[in-house]
Predict the 3D structure of the following.
Amino acid sequence: MPKPLHPVGIFGGTFNPIHFGHLRIAQELIDILGLKRLHLIPTGTPPHRAEPSVTARQRAEMAMLAVQDHPHIVLDEREVVREGFCYTVDTLTALRADYGPDQPLVLLVGADAFLGLMGWHRWSALFELAHIVVAHRPGVLTHTWQDAMPIELLREYEHRHCDDAAALALAPAGRVLPLAVTQLDISSTAIRQMVAKTRSPRYLLPDAVLRYIEEHSLYVE
Ligand SMILES: Nc1ncnc2c1ncn2[C@@H]1O[C@H](COP(=O)(O)OP(=O)(O)OP(=O)(O)O)[C@@H](O)[C@H]1O
Ligand SMILES: O=C(O)c1ccc[n+]([C@@H]2O[C@H](COP(=O)([O-])O)[C@@H](O)[C@H]2O)c1
């Protein structure tokens, strides 16, 4: 029997700014799935929210400061340099072309993002391109979260749901795995608000990222 391939992780976000909530779920995914590589992908121009207050380049620079010494996380700037809206389906299509048809790809999203998946461009094509791992997030009702899913998403979830992380190495795409991760009630919104009120977000994000925010006077009002 051929040896299963190590899945490749993919984690996109606005990262305005990146914080320990993001970094912790990325680390837990790496450990649980035995990933050798996770692409950390700051969004360029997001289709789904107002233009972030900080440029994609600066959000990417903060993400780089957060992961530059990590042995398995690579900062992937393909969305930062893309013209126009950044759709995840396009990013996954490009990664699928890079890695070939057999490589298991695993897209990491938080539970709040997964609940909004039907609003994503060509959302049902995402399941053909990658597995989706859904990290629990404080504030999202995880024990009854199926009740919060729109019916079409629930149908996909019930069809694709699996609880065995090892199963993701056995197919290139198509499964949905909920992941009970350490719950860190941190959001970029809260960090931006703290800075605006001259309160320190220290210990919610890496020191190097906080220094960058201070040096560039980000989020001050
Ligand atoms: N504390 C957290 N725990 C689990 N998942 C998280 C956490 N923070 C963010 N995520 C997930 O990380 C991805 C990127 O999130 P994003 O960059 O929008 O951060 P955010 O903190 O939600 O930002 P904002 O407050 O600006 O909306 C999303 O899939 C989101 O669900
Ligand atoms: O492709 C889409 O239509 C789409 C719609 C909403 C969100 N996304 C992606 O989901 C990821 C998390 O988004 P956010 O807003 O929680 O930072 C990020 O990589 C976005 O590009 C993608």
Notes: The pocket of nicotinate mononucleotide (ligand 2) is lined by residues 12-14, 43, 46-49, 86-89, 113, 120-121 (CB under 6 Å). The beta strands are 8-13, 37-42, 73-75, 105-110, 131-135, 176-179. The mean pLDDT is 94. The chain has eight helices and six strands.
